[in-house]
Design brief:
The chain is mainly α. Helix 4 crosses helix 6 and helix 5 runs antiparallel to helix 6.
């Protein structure tokens, strides 16, 4: 996964930028999450529910978690699209949000960041590589 982080859209990230991401995903003993929802909630990428009377829906993401890591996940999602074009996540994003305008692309990249976070968490916890992802030696 290191080549993806090293070649991001805005250039190589600094040590300070990589620190929050590395702290969460590469040190499994530091944070122990029970489910994918806990991982997403930790970074503020979980849905924010709205319920009033008979109406019950999501309002977007909660943004209640670690802001700098959430920003890094969005950046990583853009990098994922560029450097993993044949992965299942990239295909899902392109099918779902292609041709729907800039706003839809921005909303979609946050959705992709959440899915990617969960896929990478599964990779760290179980060794399950995201479908279609190409791994390279670091």
């Amino acid at each position: 996964m290191k080549p993806i982080l090293e070649h991001c859209v805005w250039g190589p990230p600094t040590r300070q930028q990589k620190e929050p991401f590395n702290a969460i995903l590469t040190r499994p003993g530091s944070y122990k999450f029970e489910s994918r929802r806990h991982v997403a909630a930790f970074l503020g990428l979980a849905p924010a529910p709205f319920a009033s009377g008979d109406v019950s829906r999501d309002q977007g993401i909660s943004k209640a978690g670690n802001r700098s890591t959430r920003v890094q996940m969005v950046e990583l999602a853009w990098c994922w699209l560029k450097y993993q074009p044949s992965s299942e996540l990239t295909v899902w994003y392109r099918n779902r949000f292609k041709g729907n305008g800039a706003r839809a692309a921005k909303v979609g990249i946050v959705a992709l960041a959440r899915k990617l976070l969960i896929a990478l968490w599964r990779f760290v916890e179980t060794g399950l590589v995201p479908q279609g992802a190409e791994l390279r030696a670091a």
